[in-house]
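Re-run with default settings, no changes from the original entry. Doing this only to confirm the output is reproducible before filing.
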Amino acid sequence: MNPTATSRVLPLPPAAGGRREEDPPGGRSWVVLERPLTLESGPALPDVGLAYETWGRRAPDGANAVLVLHALTGDSHVAGPAGPGHPTAGWWDALVGPGKALDTDHWFVVAPNVLGGCQGSTGPSSRRPEGIRWGDAFPYLTVRDQVAAEVALADALGIERWAAVVGGSMGGMRALEWAVGHPERTGSLLVLAAPAAASAEQIAWGSVQISAIRTDPGWRGGHYHDAAPGEGPHRGLGQARRIAHVTYRSEPELASRFGREPQPGEQPERGGRYRVESYLDHHADKLVHRFDAGSYVVLTEAMNGHDVGRGRGGVARALRRAGMPALVAGVDSDRLYPLTQQAELAALLPGADRLRTVESPYGHDGFLIETDQVGMLMRELLPVPRPSHLPQERP
């Protein structure tokens, strides 16, 4: 053990870091589907519930509704502070609210927690009808399955057609599926930092993260959710997060922020850590306290299977279905979902005039960080409607 290393006293990780039944709702609402959801893989998933949050006021005809879809470890909490029920502040807080790019004085913004997630929606940590948790018996999901659940949410909310569907990364995959699978219900589209289909390299990155979780002894075949604190697969989940986070940021940013500098008080040549290692440890520690390893596996598998052209005659033919106004944007320093993939989308989507580029040193995470540039795209796609389109005041 390195005698000069700075000690890190951390709270013991829970067996599963997602939302628990006893947690406060945190402004969430829930919809439970009236019937089992038939999945592409064959089985019907019973008792499906989706957690969601809303901002603004729905117009009587629902025409001002905007669907915002989160990335892999995101949730329904797009805007608002951290607090009871929400371990982190809203992930696009700068973009949603009165006078912001998604102006809630005009738009009714809806953000669901994805099916398979761990922040209120049905996933591996949820209980089956017989009372036991799903664990690794939770069925394989596709992005299309997740969108099918969101279609049921729209039906429950009385929204026949979204004014826009917006998403980045995994959320962008779901936004594309909305546009291709349900074009009549997608008024316009914004896809950020997402491909038409996962590439071999992207599948490889996802697969090694899944392997890191499943080879952790704490995985217990996926049935760990009721284990004692510290006994779940937190080491594997933390390692998956370290791997992923390297792909989320750019090499120049890591070099400029950390270089080869040691963590203060530590000597790498004697077993201590570099600053960049401490940075990755920090993000791993944060995730294992707020996210479920089973959900991470299920959602990563769904992302690996993403292909809008599957069963539709290929990507080009499938995208021709999506004739609505569309904006496609990528991050110029993104090495996980590079600009070439968004360029393909922009060229093939009938309603997209050209590729938009978010300039950022931060890599893939630029779609979350560069809110000024993303806000400009949202305002272009969704200009404030005329007063006649606003929700009417109740007498």
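The longest strand covers residues 49-55. Residues 143-157 form the longest helix (15 residues).
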